[in-house]
């Protein structure tokens, strides 16, 4: 997962019984990430148009452990391909310790539903808040929560 000069990884979570097109229809709404990620209370488009390259969303949530201020990230859409059901964003400003962090969401079709893949690449971040294992754990927890929330919403 982690090399000396960069950390990278990929995690996935199944969304049983829900087609990839239906899952993508949820993830495609770039501003609505707060609807399915537990660490984000609010998310809004701050510049540009949702689904258009270069648009920036602001995500905010509770303070990171040991902090007083609400956490925030500004995330710029850097790749977007609805035909392939994939999007990538770069964290361009934040107060949680990410620097040059790029993540990709991809929705894959499966025989019994779909799978959400979430990959990332970032230079190593200084302790104490993040290690390569903590980033991987956060992404893993998040993609599983995302899959569960989307499944609940679409099966309701």
Report on the architecture of this protein:
This protein has helices spanning 20-27, 132-155, and strands at residues 7-16, 42-47, 56-61, 71-81, 86-94, 102-110, 113-122. It is α+β, with helices and mostly antiparallel strands.
Q: Key terms for this structure?
A:
seven-stranded antiparallel β-sheet, 7 strands, 39% strand, globular, alpha+beta, 156 residues
What structural category characterises the helix and strand content?
A: alpha+beta
- Shape, principal axes of CA atoms: globular
The N- and C-terminal alpha carbons lie at a distance of 36 Å
Q: Mind summarizing the main beta sheet?
A: 7 strands, antiparallel
Average pLDDT, rounded to a whole number, is 92
Q: What share of the residues lie within helices?
A: 10-25%
Count of strand segments = 7
Compressed to H and E, one letter per element, the order equals: EHEEEEEEH
Low-confidence sequence ranges: none
Biggest sheet, spatial arrangement of strands: 1-7-6-5-4-3-2
**What is the count of helical runs?**
2
Strand content: 35-45%
Write down the Rg.
Answer: 15 Å
Quick description:
It contains 2 helices and 7 strands; from the N terminus they run βαββββββα. By secondary structure, it is α+β, with helices and mostly antiparallel strands.
Q: How would the blueprint of this fold be written?
A:
Elements: E1 7-16, H1 20-27, E2 42-47, E3 56-61, E4 71-81, E5 86-94, E6 102-110, E7 113-122, H2 132-155
Antiparallel strand pairs: 1-7, 2-3, 3-4, 4-5, 5-6, 6-7
């Amino acid at each position: 997962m982690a090399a000396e000069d960069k950390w990278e990884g990929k995690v996935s979570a199944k969304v049983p019984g829900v087609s990839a097109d239906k899952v993508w229809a949820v993830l495609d709404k770039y501003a609505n990430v707060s609807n399915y990620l537990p660490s984000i209370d609010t998310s809004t488009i701050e510049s540009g148009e949702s689904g258009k390259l270069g648009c920036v969303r602001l995500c905010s949530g509770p303070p990171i452990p040991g902090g007083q201020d609400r956490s925030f990230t500004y995330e710029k859409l850097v790749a977007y391909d609805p035909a392939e059901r994939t999007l990538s964003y770069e964290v361009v400003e934040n107060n949680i310790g990410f620097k040059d962090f790029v993540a990709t969401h991809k929705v894959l079709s499966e025989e019994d539903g779909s799978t959400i893949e979430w990959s990332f690449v970032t230079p190593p971040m200084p302790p104490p808040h993040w290690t390569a294992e903590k980033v991987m754990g956060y992404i893993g927890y998040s993609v599983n929560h995302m899959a569960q929330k989307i499944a609940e919403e679409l099966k309701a």
